[in-house]
Structure prediction request, 81 residues.
Amino acid sequence: ILGTDLTIETITGSRLALTIPPETQNGRRFRLSGQGMPVLNNPEVKGDLYATIKVVLPTDLSQEEQELFLRLKELRAGKGS
Prediction:
């Protein structure tokens, strides 16, 4: 929900920084230009690498966490969401 900065590993093993903006939706794809597979018959040129966001929801919430999520739900309901 708030966004984050990640380090991801490419197919060659190098690491890249990826910034996930706030409110990024599940399934959104990010294109990393020139970080993919080498182009056939032109190995100096690389294609694009795509990173797809997979949102993983928390499990085993503590009582305090549940209360905070309920409070957030109430706040969102007040906004007409």
User: Anything to note?
Assistant: Residues 4-78 form a domain with the HSP40/DNAj peptide-binding domain fold (CATH 2.60.260.20).
